[in-house]
Amino acid sequence: MATENREKDMSAVARRFAAVINHLNPMFAQPHLGSNDISLSKCSGSMNDSYHRIHGEVSDKIPVWNVACDETGVEFTDIIYEKAEGEAIAKITINRPEGRNASRPHTIKELITKGLVSQWYSSCVRSSPTKMVVGSSPAYDMAIGVSSRVCKGKGAIAFWAGPNLVVWARYAFWARGHVATNCRSKKSSMKITNRFDQFVPVGKRLPVLAGVRCELSGSMNDSYHRIHGEVSDKIPVWNVACDETGVEFTDIIYEKAEGEAIAKITINRPERRNAFRPHTIKELIRAFNDARDDSSIGVIILTGKGTKAFCSGGDQTLRSGDGYADFENFGRLNVLDLQVQMRRLPKPVIAMVIFVIYTCQSLLSSVNCDMRMVQVKFCVASNKVAGYAVGGGHVLHMVCDLTIAADNAVFGQTGPKVGSFDAGYGSSIMSRLVGPKKAREMWFLARFYTAQEAEKMGLINTVVPLEKLEQETVKWCREIIRNSPTAIRVLKSSLNAVDDGHAGHQELGGNATLIFYGTEEVFRNKLVQMRRLPKPVIAMVIFVIYTYQSLLNCDMGMVQVKVCVASNKVAGYAVGGGHVLHMVCDLTIAADNAVFGQTGPKVGSFDAGYGSSIMSRLVGPKKAREMWFLARFYTAQEAEKMGLINTVVPLEKLEQETVKWCREIIRNSPTAIRVLKSSLNAVDDGHAGHQELGGNATLIFYGTEEGNEGKTAYMERRPPNFSKFPRRP
Ligand SMILES: CC(C)(COP(=O)(O)OP(=O)(O)OC[C@H]1O[C@@H](n2cnc3c(N)ncnc32)[C@H](O)[C@@H]1OP(=O)(O)O)[C@@H](O)C(=O)NCCC(=O)NCCSC(=O)c1cc(O)c2ccccc2c1O
């Protein structure tokens, strides 16, 4: 029912959007629509406002389509290209119904001719079997005077059966019944959703409408489901596991499923509603590392022990002015490290009371290109008590890729009531999940929400009866495990990439290198390299300084990295991955004999991550292309001119100068330097940069009287009194 309503809504939205598009730009608006044509817009109803009065109504009468061709005059075979009579609309129909409108290269060529390619990303739109759906933002094609385009598939079965992996990303990821287009419901009168609503050709920006039809009904009786079949939801036998240290876990339980690629991690502090202390986080990090590196593991489950909570966040009894302190004499916010680890691990995870799945990416374990799955069962309620995922525990579930909740789960942020906040992932990822308004509501009011409310908000994936939770979760794990590990790995990094700035780019680029290393092209290049290159004699040339950031002790230290010191005037190379290392450093001081450059394209390698994105920031897009495409070497002087390094000094003065720079930095406020470093990176680093900067804000806040009032009130079981703190202008 809800699905049908959404369908209706979407159709309405689509029609209205079409109306807006046609009226937005008067240049392309059609003056020919008579009053008889008006049938769609219900201006007289709820939409009785000046906006609708001014912009009027729009007809939904199907135009007369005339077959068209492009300037070559060559007839199309794989598509049908039509233009509406007297209207600025073109329609392109993929015309290979016998193959479910699967594209072959020739199809794409024909589509390209019509400028429909290059950007297949889109927001999700729906269509009923008979109606066109509108997506994409308004844009105009001055050249041909067509103000909108329609793209659809011929026949009743498919809009398009591929092959663009990126378009499929979210759907292929679960591969739970999504055929060529994404079929969202297994019930009768199946609706089809597509993601082809926005085709933005380079140089020609037109609104494009994707029409999708599907007449399948009943169960998923198609070749896709016949081939891939069902998965079991039988709960596996769990055996206790440990990591390579052999040291037993105290705050968590780490298990692996017998004969299956599933690991399970349980937060084991039920007496504290599974609140974490620094030691808990350290153990979680160890277990996740092990699960990531263990090539027999494909899924990890993390769960909270007991019946009452998934996780209630940081242990407030251990909170001090500089974070959370247990066995050490300084505080830390090391859950931030765990969050980053979870965001980047290349394997999926699942939890209970709430169930969380996330795919974990790791470049370290990527050598065998394995895709593991991590199932995280935070807590299984044995009866109908509420399973809390609150505070920092709530952020943990949000960082996970997928969340499956039992019907007794409760979600919420408590920070503003206990003098805390997560201004990193806790804010940015939440805003992405539930939208900016709901995110503000969740944080500013600090309310709790039921699993059903959470599902409605898009905070979680699904809600199942508590007694079915583990079964359902295991089933999701197994469905993911069946799929291509490399596809899942790359998809996860690509799904994060846009939000994660340099860090997301780095992850995705690393995956590209990983795949490239397995190709013949690289193999041949490696041989060439081995034959021709003498063993390099490298003299130090460059001196690199980077400021060392530590959340552990809030210290601002300085690490001076002296890569190599030349005893005479040989060239000091900072090349290939060594060159990337110096770029990642905050400052670079070069000796006058330094030589800089990337070698990748000559030796069958590339760094499509930081090596590209940070370089482009340092030297600009053109110079960066030059450095990578030509793979030339540059002198220290040239490097300085490009902005690649900070300064050049005579080789004999290099160490003196570098130490001087270090001392100048050390004299300054450590907190200022710490926050400045994260803020200088923040814009480029997306969610990751935001997380770093936000973490620093929390750290400083914990040292304030106001932050402390929140914690003290929690400890004293009283409402906090924040009235004495100024509401600053
Ligand atoms: C989770 C609850 C809503 C459950 O309520 P319930 O009534 O079921 O249970 P009790 O309240 O009686 O709790 C039983 C028992 O457990 C102890 N306990 C529960 N949660 C914690 C906790 N987080 N820390 C310490 N102890 C906890 C409780 O004191 C009871 O002990 P007894 O000895 O009295 O039996 C409810 O418990 C609740 O609201 N809990 C607190 C939730 C909370 O505010 N969490 C902290 C938010 S801040 C945070 O997590 C955080 C951590 C970080 O590391 C960050 C890092 C960087 C940025 C931000 C961070 C951040 O915000």
UniProtKB/TrEMBL annotation:
One of its GO terms (molecular function) is isomerase activity. It catalyses: 2-succinylbenzoyl-CoA + H(+) = 1,4-dihydroxy-2-naphthoyl-CoA + H2O. Pfam families: ECH_1. GO terms for biological process: menaquinone biosynthetic process. Keywords: Isomerase, Lyase. GO terms for cellular component: cytosol. This is Enoyl-CoA hydratase/isomerase D. It comes from Artemisia annua.
